[in-house]
């Protein structure tokens, strides 16, 4: 164990030498190493797993052949270009005399500072710095041609015998955007570069800013024996670039191979490496049958600056077992955890370069299984944090947008989620697909059509369970107005929807839709606001927000919010009640329509007798008598007389839509339509249901 303390003085904390305000602002980095017993690395064996740490010292650096490929398109203008130039000047100063290098800058065109590699003499380095200083960003981004030009220079140098056989060749790409000129298809660029490099050298990628397609840079780097790193375009861009370069600037070994000759060894993680860089460490892990093995032997072969190296290590299987059992700070399961972590990382790299979608899906399944079996957070799983009382689980991290290389439906709750949360209710998923990561719903199944809903512009459908009828009505109000849907002082629940208007009128009428829906759970002190962009939970000053591009869950005070990406949100309060909000997306350039929300509420919700609102009032089902059915103006729309709440109304039979199974076309629902904004069916006038805020309760008329 070790204790690390940091006690900055007041002067060190000042934002500037003359500032009075202070802040601890920066990265706190602790670097550590351990004593190493031999050049062959250190072997640790415990509980059926071994870990091999390899970080040899006292080796001379290998010469390197390096091509810097720099994006100088218009998007690099300003601070990003200034910081890149400063970083490149510093990097060029660190080149060794045995190194060879050149520079390529590109926008819609590709330019070479030199058409071939040159030695890193002081004169050449100084000339390269002057060249970089003259760069002025403009134009588009032709990544394909720039990388192919770089690979051509390295391949030509090798074919002409200009490269030291023991040297390491690499390309460093610096870019902030997607291709806009030349070849635009990312898979084609990846294929072209792979075919040109031919596993002869490495490609390292630096993605600057938030607009860059970082997943693409990761794929193309991993595919070509390199790695990628995102650089945030700010005042620290220069330092971040130099730190990345330092990781790859000192190659010490190449063609490293790890061998474990015993038959008792299996499931070894990546065991061959193209390069080893100074300041880093290679870690290999695997399973070992300790019952039939007294010693584990490793043989590492590699190419160094002046010789071929063979390094051997022998480890007593029992030696570490005894130490782990005695030391109170030791984690007896660390070997298994580290093996699983390395295996998952290896599979992630394999997934990035998978040639087919089917293979990628299979690798993803394996990653998910490893993640769940060994409790490892990956890009396809989430991390949730449980409070000490075990009654709250909060989302701490979640999968990325599936369109950027991830997959849907991979976010799960921890196995010991509170038992009083029964998961997503069956009615919210009409197709009744089992949700394996949620506790099973125990309430009786609900008919797919037996539900109250408000959707489209806005159409209300009230299901009356006793009479097995659906009654419909529309509300025609103004954009910005807030309608109360449920107001239940008994349970302390209020649900309100704010209207948004279409972009313009059609047939002298402006259609309105729900653009925002608010839920207030007064007894829990929780508020939920759902818009067409975000889903926000508020608990006093605390708040957490998900977007519709997420798939995830939030649990707080026994209230579960479950988001299904670009589809719906379900809110579940124990077994007492549940709600679903459905998202409708339209073409963003549509001349009339806008994005909007629909809300679905099952009549089985356990509201109190005091419940009211446009939907809540029907928690106590009114007596409805429909008779004297007769032809209407259209043959498919007969009329009838409906008696309800002491009123006689003329109603029309027709179809409305349930969008839970098909958000585009919907499912037809037969209902009796009440005209004049539901007058006579609802209590009072629809204007009686207007409230001032998204979280207001309604005073019963």
Automatic annotation (TrEMBL):
Main localization category: secreted
Do the record's keywords include Glycoprotein?
yes
Span of domain VWFA: 65-248
Keywords, alphabetical: Glycoprotein, Protease inhibitor, Secreted, Serine protease inhibitor, Signal
Which molecular function GO terms apply here?
serine-type endopeptidase inhibitor activity
Any Pfam family: VWA
Q: GO CC terms for this protein?
A: extracellular region
> Which GO BP terms apply?
hyaluronan metabolic process
Subcellular location as annotated: Secreted
Family affiliation: Belongs to the ITIH family.
In its UniProt entry, what is this protein called? ITIH2 inhibitor
Q: Which gene encodes it?
A: Itih2
